């Protein structure tokens, strides 16, 4: 018996920009004649890939193009990519909210989907009434809703407002109740778009725990779209990376995240003069570069490599006259949580150089992944320049401990220099 929960074959979705219609009666007749003969729309062939960063020549774009994948029952699949890559469109097609232009989807089991805040809710109805309404829309029987009603309300944490019309709910309360209903439906497939970003940190953690329980504990299939790579890595064992409506990579969740982060590195800012920020006329960061121990400039290093970070700047005599001056480098993860910090103030309370300073790091022991770099300069005159996410630095896996075993990428950011001794 097949263990495939969802199978997509040559799945494509085209959208027409501007007004519906080809523009001429003759072309509309050609389209109508093709349709009654069961043929493909001849004018879809002029479509372009969905690259939102460039101006196209066609009024037809492919939001999805030739998507093929198989998802097994019990898999938790993270779907990632840049804005406009086709993630939400794919979930809408899988949820049967919209039909594909070409290709087909096969699957088995009920699908519970949460694609937008308040989907299926009626603003004039109370939370209690909307639980019954939304549950019915998702395919739950009334007895099933009654049996799980208290559990749904408890999970959502809106018991005090359960008999209040949902039009008076905040967006966070909306998504709490909507997710609670979808998560407690005994469906074989749970599809969740990035609506969880509306909830607070405590509820996001609660939702991730519930989805993990649904996938690992109950053997149900979960499809999850999020820009939070930490959540994807924590929940998903498999991943699909979309780019301009096509699958750029599919594999394990960790490999998919690494592929995405490396591709994002290419979008790092290189011309600091183009960055709009508040800065002082007496100091300005002009460039940042990374080089290895051999003097080669690059942005990708292995765990444990020696690394030099060179910071370039322009300064005036006013900067040199300061009694205290410092330059800091903040190294953050992809969610912009501070991982470590480098500062000239640790070694000296004043910068004496005029336009360049170097930070030498021995055996860089951060775990594999993409890191955002922040630059900051301050003197006793005040803050002079501060650029967040000025550049990106990628660390790739290596045998840091020389044991033949790689450190897991989901086990923290820091690799400690340690040994293990066994005692009888």
Polypeptide structure, described:
By secondary structure, the protein is an alpha/beta fold. It has helices at residues 25-36, 87-94, 127-138, 142-156, 171-184, 201-217, 229-235, 253-265, 317-320; strands spanning 4-16, 48-49, 60-72, 76-80, 102-107, 111-114, 189-192, 221-225, 238-243, 246-252, 283-291, 300-302, 307-315, 325-332, 338-343, 356-361, 369-379, 382-396. Strand 14 (325-332) and strand 15 form a beta hairpin. The longest helix is centred in the middle third of the chain and has 17 residues, at 201-217. The two termini are 51 Å apart.
Question: How does the SSE layout of this entry go?
Answer:
Blueprint lengths: L3 E13 L8 H12 L11 E2 L10 E13 L3 E5 L6 H8 L7 E6 L3 E4 L12 H12 L3 H15 L14 H14 L4 E4 L8 H17 L3 E5 L3 H7 L2 E6 L2 E7 H13 L17 E9 L8 E3 L4 E9 L1 H4 L4 E8 L5 E6 L12 E6 L7 E11 L2 E15 L28
Parallel strand pairs: 2-3, 4-8, 4-9, 6-7, 7-8, 12-18
Antiparallel strand pairs: 1-3, 1-5, 9-10, 11-13, 13-16, 14-15, 14-17, 17-18
Attribute tags:
424 residues, alpha/beta, 6-stranded mixed sheet, 5-stranded mixed sheet, 18 strands, 24% helix, globular
Kindly state the number of beta strands. Answer: 18
Strands of the widest sheet, in order across it, are 6-7-8-4-9-10
For the record, give the distance between the C-alpha atoms at the N and C termini, rounded to a whole number: 51 Å
Q: Approximately how much helix is present in the residues?
A: 10-25%
Quickly count the helices. 9
Mean pLDDT: 84
Strand percent estimate: 25-35%
Instruction: Give helix and strand order, one letter per element, not per position.
Output: EHEEEHEEHHHEHEHEEHEEEHEEEEE
């Amino acid at each position: 018996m097949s263990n495939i929960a969802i199978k997509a074959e040559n799945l494509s979705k085209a959208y027409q920009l501007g007004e519906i219609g080809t523009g001429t009666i003759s072309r509309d007749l050609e389209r109508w004649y093709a349709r009654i003969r069961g043929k493909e729309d001849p004018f879809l062939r002029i479509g372009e890939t969905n690259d939102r960063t460039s101006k196209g020549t066609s009024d037809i774009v492919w939001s999805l193009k030739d998507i093929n994948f198989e998802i097994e029952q019990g898999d938790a699949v993270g779907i990632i990519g840049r804005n406009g890559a086709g993630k939400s469109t794919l979930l809408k097609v899988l949820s049967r909210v919209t039909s594909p232009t070409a290709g087909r989807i096969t699957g088995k089991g009920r699908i519970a989907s949460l694609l937008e805040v308040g989907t299926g809710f009626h603003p004039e109805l109370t939370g209690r009434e909307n639980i019954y309404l939304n549950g019915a829309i998702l395919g739950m029987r009334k007895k099933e809703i009654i049996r799980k009603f208290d559990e749904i309300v408890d999970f959502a944490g809106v018991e005090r407002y359960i008999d209040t019309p949902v039009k008076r709910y905040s967006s966070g309360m909306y998504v709490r109740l909507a997710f609670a209903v979808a998560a407690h439906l005994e469906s074989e497939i749970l599809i969740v778009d990035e609506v969880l970003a509306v909830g607070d940190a405590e509820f996001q953690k609660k939702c991730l725990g519930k989805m993990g329980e649904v996938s690992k504990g109950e053997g149900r299939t979960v499809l999850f779209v999020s820009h939070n790579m930490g959540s994807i890595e924590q929940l998903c064992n498999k991943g699909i990376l979309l780019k301009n409506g096509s699958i750029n990579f599919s594999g394990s969740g960790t490999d998919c995240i690494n592929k995405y982060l490396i591709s994002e590195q290419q979008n790092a800012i290189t011309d600091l003069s183009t960055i709009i920020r508040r800065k002082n006329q007496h100091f300005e960061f002009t460039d940042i570069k990374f080089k290895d121990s051999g003097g080669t400039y690059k942005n990708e290093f292995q765990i444990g490599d020696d690394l030099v970070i060179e910071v370039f700047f322009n300064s005036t005599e006013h900067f040199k006259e300061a009694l205290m001056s410092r330059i800091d480098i903040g190294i953050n993860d992809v969610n912009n949580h501070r991982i470590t910090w480098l500062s000239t103030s640790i070694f000296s309370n004043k910068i004496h150089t005029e336009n360049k300073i170097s930070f030498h790091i021995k055996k860089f022991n951060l775990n594999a992944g993409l890191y955002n770099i922040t630059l900051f300069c301050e003197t006793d005159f005040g803050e002079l320049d501060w650029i967040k996410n000025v550049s990106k630095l990628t660390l790739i896996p290596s045998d840091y401990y020389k044991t033949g075993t790689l450190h897991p990428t989901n086990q923290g950011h820091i690799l400690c220099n340690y040994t293990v001794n066994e005692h009888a």
